[in-house]
Amino acid sequence: MRIAFDAMGGDHAPQAMVEGILQAAREWPDTRFYLLGLQEEVQPHLPQESLSNVIVTPVTERIETDEEPVKAVRRKKDSSIVRGCRMVKEGEAEAFISAGNTGALMAAGLLVTGRLPGIERPALAPVFPTLNQQGMLVLDVGANPEARPEHLEQYALMGSLYAESVLGFARPRVGLLNIGAEEAKGTAFTKEAYSRISALPIHFIGNVEARDVLSGNCDVLVCDGFSGNILLKNTEGVAKAIFDRLKQEFTRTAFTKLAAAILKPGLKRFATDMDYKEHGGAPLLGLQGPVVKAHGSSDSRAVFNAVRQARLYVKQQVTTRITEELNRLERG
Description:
The protein is α/β, with parallel strands linked by helices. The protein has eleven helices and twelve strands. Keywords: Acyltransferase, Cytoplasm, Lipid biosynthesis, Lipid metabolism, Phospholipid biosynthesis, Phospholipid metabolism, Transferase.
């Protein structure tokens, strides 16, 4: 297997990116890792004794987080993001992972790697932590702020296949984000999406309200990119606020500090269960090859988990399965 990785993307690049890839290279010696980055910045973080399955692939440009995505992709042809997406397109790599500029990665995915035949809009699909510790795939969370009902229909199909193949859900339960659980609730947009998804050969359980998302009452949650991005940012913000407030309360007095010491093992388990780093990255489903967006603040553990996720993506032939399912639906 061949996986390309963006060493220049992310808050802790290139050190955390290189460390994560080295861990992955030792864990999976059958996989070749192409480390795309500026030679002078990547080289100092590599061990003196190089690993045979880690190949440093120099680039001359990088796309910064504040750059306008489409312009940057078109102007910086030799950036790590553009090169990685091109390697997938041309078959040099079977997957590409980046923690860099999300918009640029989505633009490069569309303009360089390209969409699968029949897919109108790719979807960004992270795994949300849930209280039942299983996680939930949510798509879309920002690739397409303005979606149509047929896009959500395709999201539901792709999400179900990915959740089964990569996340290990048997017959994934697919829900549609809405303001009420009843079938008649929502706008004309969500009602038509409901009708379309209901006709798919998947386990559709109907509408799901935002307040029930973290309870894990579905395995795949479908929504437009605008609503999904708000849901993502709100969930991250609430989680951070809760942990910050708990820290304040547990350090307020000697008594609360003692209570914190007693509860510490349980709190650490809870924090791990709710940590995005345990779930790897978010695939851009609907492209002609696996492209995975790792979180911008990924550390080496998150990088390692993103590699594990990408390997499953490739091994389970998710892209081929999506294409076959689309062709089957078109044949009626």
